[in-house]
Amino acid sequence: MKGNIYGIWLLAFGLLITSCNDALEEELVTDVSAASYYTTEKGLQDAVNATYSFLKPFYGQEIGFTMTVFGTDTYNNGADGGHKFFNFYDTSLNAASAYARDAWQTWYRGVNQANGVINRSESVEMDEAEKTTRLAEVRFLRALYYFNIVITYGDAHLSLEETENIEIEANRTAQSEIYTQAIVPDLEFAIANLPDSQSDYGRATKPAAEFLLGKVLLTRSYKSFAEGNDATRAETLFSNVINNYDFALLDDFADVFDITNQENSEMVFAIPNAKSQVDTDIDPYGHRGHLYFLQEYDVRRGMTRDIANGRPWKRFRPTPFTLGLWDRDIDTRYDKTFKHVWYANKEEPATEATETEPARAALAVGDTAIFIPGPQRDDLWPQSRQDQVPYLVITEEEYSERLFPSMNKWIDPTRPDRQKVNGQRDFMLMRLADAYLLRAEARLQNNDAAGAAADLNVVRVRSAVPGQEAAIQIGAGDVDIDFILDERARELIGEGWRWWDLTRTGKLVERVRLHNPTASPNIQDYHVLRPIPQEQIDRTLGGYPQNPGYPQ
Length: 552
Known about the structure:
Blueprint: H1 9-14, H2 34-37, H3 41-52, H4 62-69, E1 75-77, H5 85-88, H6 98-120, H7 128-153, H8 175-193, H9 206-220, H10 230-243, E2 267-271, H11 275-279, E3 316-318, H12 320-323, H13 333-337, E4 338-339, E5 341-343, E6 368-371, H14 383-386, E7 392-393, E8 406-407, E9 427-431, H15 432-445, H16 449-462, H17 481-492, H18 498-504, H19 508-515, H20 534-538
Parallel strand pairs: 6-7
Antiparallel strand pairs: 1-3, 2-9, 4-8, 5-6
Helix pairs in contact: 3-6, 3-7, 6-7, 7-8, 8-9, 9-10, 9-15, 10-15, 15-16, 15-17
């Protein structure tokens, strides 16, 4: 898959069918040869592969993390970056936001690419079984793109037909109709026609479609337009993923993020990134998560920027609430998610005492240079003890926009040099632990707290400190939606789902006001949707309605 689909990146962009949004641009970007090329078997195969390419501009990029991590209960802003208004919820979060525009454009380009493949496939002569499988992949992708659109923007433009010429008209279809006309039937078709597995890693499969439909129905179950059996169907679909295939939780939580073992038994669906392609910039994206969650270690005593510790862009720092989520005496996930020690990578001479700093012994390469005890351990490091060691100890009172616990899930030591921004990590869209957590949520929706607790315990026991497997388990009486959201944060922190988790469950405003000190002053009820991009408004005949709360 890494060489078969995403390796044709440049070809994909040479074949793009114009999207609904692009149709409002002054110049068409469609390759004039694409129409005839798509009607060949090779052309159809490449067109299907091109439909996957629209996953990459969002997932694993700063735009994706910004729009799903910022402005939640788990992360607020670090020192750097130009999109902090997604965290502040101030007036800069408006229709002119580049990220709100780019996400809208990317997903609609994916939708229109899928529409074009589906519409043009009718004239392609090839093995019908294989054609049906490829169309099932495309419909899976179209459902994913439309799902992202409605959970981000709400009511939106719906079209199941290819846009080939300049369009200046657009509809605003109720999200309930987008679910019933596009997302759900596309995924039902995908489930009926996709194989259980594919030889190309990263192609859509039946369990991936079941996972996504389960999440779609779970999301709809909270809506005023929910169908009565949504949560029950979601539970069944997640049970299928958990029970009917060869997926299995890895024994060690840390192994999920082992960059040498990415195609493991826990992965249900991932966006692959090939090292040969990201290193040579054939693929202009790759996984960039390694940049954004790191403190400013590289200007501290004994330290300089290197590949192993990452390039610290200081975008996202955890809220105090986040750092209090884990009981480190029974749960290993904090210790396996956050970095504690930075070892000196340059020599540092001894220093004399000053009015504000004690004398420090020399540091040799390999000595401890920075240590962050982390939550529930700061009391072991009173100032008197800190003054006795040659390295910097950062406790909670020293946390700032530059110094904070750094998440190490996405560190990529395989990059060719310390400045390289593209990484080879795959982006995990669906993994088995999340299927358990989502099934727990569906079971809670179905008033089965005991079943929800059982699912949560599967995930919790996997992460238990040895000997604490009994202590980490919870009972039915412990389970409510807030506990499930806390558990999702403990397991999935920084993986790109949090803003959507909170909007799905109706908890965004409440939990941001409680737990994010930089976001709480400004967040309002209407912030559960992002603003419709100004370009869409300006280039639609008669204008395009803005979401409530945002200036038209």
